[in-house]
Specification:
alpha+beta; six-stranded mixed beta sheet; five-stranded antiparallel beta sheet; 8 helices; 22 strands
């Protein structure tokens, strides 16, 4: 498993539909330098070997995990989480409401709807709490862990002034990292769709390809990578395959030991394409944006990206702990190294400007030219 960032605790956003249970990963981004953490049972879950290796490495992106923590990370990268299938957001004041309900989830089957106010979780009031705390209540379990499938949680809900409680059983659910939203454009008459990728977990690349394959051939596409922290590098290459007809996506490694990532043939090379990025676009997301920019496939709009161009691989230690260590840096097809520098957009969005509207203007221009 090769990845260029981890999906760490706290990597959540309230934009584009709220914070979902899957965002609150049970995995800590890094062990403290004490070399151990307390497990739920009160015993030390030691990661001495991994912690010692990380401490000696001098690697700014290195991280150490206990065996339990790494299993949580593996599940997150596999695109799985345990929950009831809701995203929540704060709508002003103390109100927390359901932003989205995952189809087929326990919440959906119970009739919970987007827009319902979430008043309590297991009797604990949500008012005044950070959204991430509300998500933690929904997930349940001890600190650093998630409740198991089949465990129950009671939601106190309000819909148009009618309050009721809904008892739900948590289930193992798949993370939906790709969302597709049609964009209306009455001014230009050109069709456009926003394809947003929240992160690159197992299956993300195929999700993007299916989404793009399902669009009309002349549909303009806004590929939204804002706030995307990265993930599995192979999935980013898979996403590139949706927009390219084969060819180089990136190279990575150290010195003479370098590997190449290639797009699969047969992608959509005709539809106008604009990629939205910002300072939260990291790692595998930067790799994808850089490939589409270098290959002349897309216009990149937004602000300079984060600048994490390194690749990590996990190494299991004798005590069962796992050290995640950098094995090199990736380069875009044109040979650019993005570590620390980040990716410069073709069109910079200034403070106060609406990034999506700027991207729509560019997309309309591309559609006119084509």
């Amino acid at each position: 498993m090769v990845f260029v960032t981890v999906l760490a605790t706290g990597a959540v956003t309230e934009s584009w539909g709220g914070v979902t249970e899957s965002d609150a990963s049970p995995v800590s981004p890094r062990l403290s330098r004490t070399g151990a953490q307390e497990s739920a049972s009160g015993h030390e879950d030691a990661a001495y070997d991994a912690e010692e290796l990380v401490s000696r490495s001098g690697d700014r992106w290195a991280a150490a995990y206990t065996a339990r923590e790494y299993e949580g990370l593996r599940r997150a990268l596999d695109g799985e989480y345990v929950g009831v299938g809701v995203s929540v957001r704060r709508t002003g004041g103390d109100r927390v409401e359901v932003a989205r309900v995952q189809p087929g989830s326990p919440a959906a089957e119970a009739g919970v709807r987007a827009g319902d106010r979430l008043v309590t979780v297991d009797g604990t009031a949500t008012g005044g709490r950070p959204v991430t705390d509300v998500v933690a209540l929904l997930r349940g379990g001890a600190p650093g862990e998630a409740a198991p499938p089949g465990s129950r949680v009671v939601l106190g809900l309000d819909r148009d002034g009618r309050r009721w409680e809904e008892g739900l059983e948590r289930a193992r659910l798949g993370v939906e990292t790709v969302t597709v939203v049609p964009l209306d454009d009455g001014s230009t008459g050109t069709g456009a769709t926003r394809v947003r990728i929240d992160s690159f977990t197992k299956g993300s690349g195929e999700q993007v390809r299916r989404a793009v394959d399902g669009l009309p051939p002349d549909e303009g596409i806004l590929l939204d990578l804002r706030g995307n922290p990265g993930g599995l590098v192979a999935e980013a290459a898979g996403a590139a395959s949706a927009f390219l007809d084969g060819g180089l996506v990136a190279t990575y490694g150290n010195g003479d030991t370098r590997r190449a990532l290639y797009a699969e043939p047969g992608g959509n090379t005709e539809s106008p394409l604009v990629v939205l990025v910002d300072g939260g676009t990291m790692s595998a997301a930067e790799l994808l944006a850089g490939a589409l920019q270098d290959r002349g496939r897309a216009v990149v709009v937004g602000t300079r990206t984060f600048g994490k161009g390194s690749v990590q691989v996990p190494e299991e230690q004798p005590d069962g702990s796992v050290a995640e260590l950098t094995v090199g840096h990736y380069a875009t097809p044109a040979g650019r190294i993005l570590e620390e520098e980040g990716l410069a957009p073709d069109l910079v969005v200034r403070p106060g400007q609406d990034a999506q509207e700027e991207a729509r203007t560019v997309l309309s221009g591309l559609a006119t030219r084509s």
